[in-house]
Amino acid sequence: MRQLKVDGKPHDVNVEGDMPLLWWLRDELGKTGPKYGCGIAMCGACTVHVGGRPVRSCSLRVGDVKDDAEITTIAGLDTQAFHAVQAAWIEHQVAQCGYCQPGQIMAAAALLQARLVEGNPPLAEKDFDVTVDHVMSANLCRCGTYTRIRAAIRTAAARLQGQKS
Ligand code: FES
Ligand code: FES
């Protein structure tokens, strides 16, 4: 039987390949971090990482996930270097109702992973806000936590950059 690794552990895939990844994660594995918002890849509430990249799990079929791709939900994020993102979120008290927040954190973690860990130049101060707003604008928050999200990303980025040097 096919298996996929989720949050560091292999899981049997015993569903049809056209099931959305979000359904499999939530209904079959009990991973309730990723949320159902729009179901059409427009809100980002369902964001998880596949192979280290942020994806909309409501719109990716289980059958289209590569066998060797690691899937990470917010439940597995604290096993990675991006505990800093979650710590910054708490410090800035970002969440209000909380519904969008797992997706927001996964998007932010992927942004910082790409910019700070994979050898790319860090976010320059002069375009920090523009870059963060551009990337994070794909994740919607009905409670309007955008200002705190940006502040938390700034804190996490500073810490991760400090850890690198
Ligand atoms: S539920 Fe997937 S993007 Fe909205
Ligand atoms: S915190 Fe409520 S939707 Fe974002």
UniProtKB/TrEMBL annotation:
<dbReference type="InterPro" id="IPR012675">
    <property type="entry name" value="Beta-grasp_dom_sf"/>
</dbReference>
<keyword id="KW-0411">Iron-sulfur</keyword>
<keyword id="KW-0408">Iron</keyword>
<dbReference type="GO" id="GO:0016491">
    <property type="term" value="F:oxidoreductase activity"/>
</dbReference>
<keyword id="KW-0560">Oxidoreductase</keyword>
<dbReference type="Pfam" id="PF01799">
    <property type="entry name" value="Fer2_2"/>
</dbReference>
<dbReference type="GO" id="GO:0046872">
    <property type="term" value="F:metal ion binding"/>
</dbReference>
<dbReference type="GO" id="GO:0051537">
    <property type="term" value="F:2 iron, 2 sulfur cluster binding"/>
</dbReference>
<dbReference type="InterPro" id="IPR051452">
    <property type="entry name" value="Diverse_Oxidoreductases"/>
</dbReference>
<dbReference type="InterPro" id="IPR002888">
    <property type="entry name" value="2Fe-2S-bd"/>
</dbReference>
<dbReference type="InterPro" id="IPR006058">
    <property type="entry name" value="2Fe2S_fd_BS"/>
</dbReference>
<dbReference type="InterPro" id="IPR001041">
    <property type="entry name" value="2Fe-2S_ferredoxin-type"/>
</dbReference>
<dbReference type="InterPro" id="IPR036884">
    <property type="entry name" value="2Fe-2S-bd_dom_sf"/>
</dbReference>
<feature type="domain" description="2Fe-2S ferredoxin-type">
    <location>
        <begin position="1"/>
        <end position="77"/>
    </location>
</feature>
<protein>
    <submittedName>
        <fullName>(2Fe-2S)-binding protein</fullName>
    </submittedName>
</protein>
<keyword id="KW-0001">2Fe-2S</keyword>
<dbReference type="InterPro" id="IPR036010">
    <property type="entry name" value="2Fe-2S_ferredoxin-like_sf"/>
</dbReference>
<dbReference type="Pfam" id="PF00111">
    <property type="entry name" value="Fer2"/>
</dbReference>
<keyword id="KW-0479">Metal-binding</keyword>
